[in-house]
Amino acid sequence: xxxxxxxxxxxxxxxxxxxxxxxxxxxxxxxxxxxxxxxxxxxxxxxxxxxxxxxxxxxxxxxxxxxxxxxxxxxx
Length: 76
Prior knowledge:
The protein is mainly α. Helices cover 57% and strands 5% of the residues. It has a domain at 38-76. It has 4 helices and 2 strands, in the order H-E-H-E-H-H. The protein has a two-stranded parallel ribbon with strand order 1-2. Helix 2 (25-32) links the parallel strand 1 and strand 2. The protein is elongated, with a radius of gyration of 14 Å.
């Protein structure tokens, strides 16, 4: 995947975002090293549509997003 993203970045004037199988912060962190952006879809939907009260699922989603942000945030 790194090779494909490198080719895309070399031939594009816009940032390149990628995402496939991103189900935790460590996977997002690895991808963020080679892509300009990380797309997280299925894992987020799975959390929101899981079992339990909506407020619990919402809190789990908030924690998931906070963990992602902490692990992929780049220093300017």
